[in-house]
Write a structure and sequence with these properties.
This protein is α+β, with helices and mostly antiparallel strands. Helix 3 (87-101) links the parallel strand 4 (70-78) and strand 5 (106-112). It has one domain: 3-Layer(aba) Sandwich (Aminopeptidase), CATH 3.40.630. The radius of gyration is 15 Å and the shape is globular. It contains four helices and seven strands, in the order βααβββαβαββ.
Length: 164
């Protein structure tokens, strides 16, 4: 698997991101959809990666810098044909490594709370993310789960709630 920086120009990534947005709108009310479109992902505070194998797009993920010490995981999506092959875990670990290299000490995320997001929630928990409250511009929302992970120092015990 080749994970590389992406300029969001290719048709394959545009299609995957549209699929991602469509799914978010299918499973959450409009006010609870926090996925970013291609233009928003081009913001200078965001670094975007794609995973490829033999010319096929496997998935994507992004890091949004919130401040000097805090980053947000965005736009994690695996192409349907490559689900349950370790793509999301590899991308998550890649983004986390990049965040550490940039000096980010905490990585947080927002994802859905209902059944279609269960696999994502299990993945994040298995990688050391714990539930927390809303961060950045988010507000409490029954359709959102907020999670965080300390990338430096001592992380909270597994399953514990942490402030973002």
């Amino acid at each position: 698997m080749d994970i590389r920086l992406d300029d969001l120009q290719g048709e394959a990534i545009k299609a995957l991101l549209q699929l991602h947005l469509d799914a978010m709108h299918q499973h959450s009310p409009p006010e609870s959809v926090h996925a970013l479109d291609v233009e928003a992902l081009r913001h200078p505070s965001i670094t975007f990666w794609t995973a490829w194998e033999s010319g096929h797009l496997l998935g994507c993920g992004a890091l949004k810098r919130l401040d000097r010490d805090h980053g947000e995981l965005k736009s994690m999506r695996t192409a349907d044909a490559h689900l349950r092959k370790g793509v999301a875990r590899a991308l998550l670990r890649h983004v986390e490594s990049a965040a550490r290299a940039e000096g980010i000490r905490r990585l947080s995320l927002e994802t859905g709370s209902n059944a279609p997001f269960a696999a994502a929630l299990r993945l994040y928990a298995s990688e050391g993310f714990v539930n927390c409250g809303p961060f950045a511009d988010y507000a409490l929302d029954p359709f959102s789960v907020f999670m965080t992970k300390l990338l430096a120092d001592q992380a909270p015990p597994h399953g514990a709630h942490a402030p973002c």
